[in-house]
Design goal:
This protein is of the alpha+beta class. It is built from seven helices and 17 strands. A hairpin with a 3-residue loop joins strand 11 (157-158) and strand 12.
Length: 259
């Protein structure tokens, strides 16, 4: 990897500003390979150096990828004007200045949310041309009906005359008011509007997979994990919807019902 300035290395991988980094260097709070470094313009190879700031190791990778199990009551934004944001749930040691939610979940919705500072990857996930599938489990107001399968598959029309891409839906075994849904697009309140169009209502919604990245069952609401690059690659490996439903219905139905 090409050498870069120390202050740039830290700034791109943390929430520290250049001025803060300069002050911390003066105070001896920055080390490179265990040695205090007070010169911010020192150049280093990120792959060969270990940098710490105030005792915290700064990861060599330029971009961070965080998977959050979003709880209810938080908005998917970096701006808190509409309420407390999901960014407040990310521990300081995992944050960078440019992080943002790559996708949206309603304030009252739950589940898998990717947070990153990699705008290029976020664009790939959200691009309509990519059609990265997302799987949700929903709790319905009324029992699931088998006719929903053909209606969703046909590419239904929802309120306002919007036409949806073909989607998949499946009843959850032993739970007549639960269903799995797979979408390849993200219209405003789409899952809720789709069920409303078949005279049913969504009482609770939880996203459980994005592409081939499945929400870990032991990740509690409000908790997050940093993803490895091999995990990020799974975003572009679609799941077998039917196999997913048969394998995970017990896990995610229990989580949603007991929430």
């Amino acid at each position: 990897m090409p050498e870069i300035r120390l202050d740039r290395f830290i700034s791109e991988r943390s929430e520290y500003t250049r001025s803060q980094i300069k002050e911390l260097a003066k105070k001896g709070k920055i080390t490179v390979n265990g040695t205090v470094e007070k010169s911010c313009d020192k150049k280093l190879d990120p792959d060969l150096c270990t940098v710490t700031v105030e005792g915290r190791t700064i990861a060599a990778e330029k971009f961070k990828y965080i998977l959050l199990n979003k709880p209810e009551g938080y908005v998917c934004s970096t701006d808190d004007k509409d309420g407390e944001t999901v960014m407040s749930l990310i521990p300081p040691e995992l944050r960078t200045k440019d992080m943002f939610p790559a996708g949206r979940l309603d304030k009252d919705s739950l589940g898998a949310l990717l947070i990153t500072d990699n705008g290029g990857l976020a664009h790939r996930i959200l691009s309509p041309k990519r059609h990265v599938p997302k799987i949700y489990i929903v709790k319905l107001d009324r029992p699931f009906k088998s006719k929903y399968i053909d209606i969703f598959t046909s590419g239904m029309e929802i309120d306002g005359g919007e036409r949806c891409l073909p989607a998949k839906v499946s009843a959850v075994k032993n739970c007549e008011k639960l269903a799995f849904v797979e979408l390849k697009e993200g219209k405003f309140h789409q899952v809720k509007r789709m069920f409303k169009s078949v005279d049913n209502n969504v009482e609770r919604l939880m996203r459980v997979a994005v592409g081939g990245l499945i929400l870990p069952e032991n990740l509690e609401f409000g908790q997050c994990i940093e993803l490895l690059h091999k995990d990020v690659e799974n975003l572009f490996l679609p799941l077998d919807f039917e196999l997913f439903c048969s394998k995970y219905f017990g896990i995610f139905s229990a989580i949603l019902i007991n929430k």
